[in-house]
Design a protein that fits this description.
222 residues; mainly beta; 8 strands; 32% strand
């Protein structure tokens, strides 16, 4: 007869407790396909640069925050203190992060909501001049965020792919000697009609291979 401790030992798995130690994010125009997999056939990660993805660059230590605000409607019944039925009616998703790198064209386009395709840089002075529009143009992008945890022999790669994101807000920017020039960015997430979902989740790596029996997924037939 099992004891509480043997039941717990069988139920708990330390290897599935993950932290994101490192992460990298990329933007792309909606003409670039969201990858079906983050890996090539031999287990290496795909080359995102060749595929047309543009790096967000370094962000502040708080990393990437994935908001998920669920709204629901309850049905009340006479004589009952709690709802007799509850239905989810809306899930508002968002991503918030604070870029540290300043000057990438595509990040300036995202932050200020403008098109800088025709903007050039002076080869002598390095100067770039552009006007911030009164209202952002509302450009839509694809977004891919990949996180890594664990050593090479037991490495977990977690990813989130978004078919359509759009600038929702940027916070105030401060110029001073004590802190870098930053402005938090919040992106709204929309369902992409090509993908049919708002978010595509990825999980893989040598850690996922090593612990495949406890993740609970059916192995793919070769």
């Amino acid at each position: 007869m099992p004891t509480f401790d043997t039941i717990r030992q069988d139920a708990d798995e330390r290897a599935l407790i993950r932290k994101i130690q490192k992460a990298v994010a990329f933007l792309a125009p909606t003409t670039v396909d969201l990858p079906d997999s983050l890996f090539t056939g031999v287990g290496a990660l795909i080359d995102l640069k060749v595929a047309g993805w543009l790096p967000v660059g370094m962000v502040t230590p708080d990393g990437y925050n994935f908001g998920r605000d669920v709204s629901k409607e309850d049905v009340s019944a006479f004589g009952y203190a709690g709802p007799a039925r509850s239905d989810v009616t809306e899930v508002a998703r968002s991503i918030t992060f604070t870029p540290l790198e300043t000057g990438r064209r595509h990040m300036l386009e995202l932050t200020y909501g403008t098109d800088l395709t025709a903007t050039t840089q002076d080869v002598t002075t390095g100067e770039v001049v552009f006007d911030e529009p009164e209202l952002p143009v509302g450009q839509e992008y694809r977004l891919l965020i990949i996180g890594s945890d664990g050593p090479a022999a037991e490495n977990w790669i977690l990813g989130r792919g978004y078919g359509i994101v759009k600038l929702a807000s940027t916070d105030s920017q401060t110029w001073g000697s004590s802190d870098p020039v930053t402005a938090p960015v919040t992106l709204d997430v929309f369902t992409d009609t090509e993908i049919g979902a708002p978010v595509r989740h990825y999980m893989g790596g040598t850690g996922a291979v090593k612990h495949k029996t406890v993740t609970g997924f059916t192995p793919e037939t070769p």
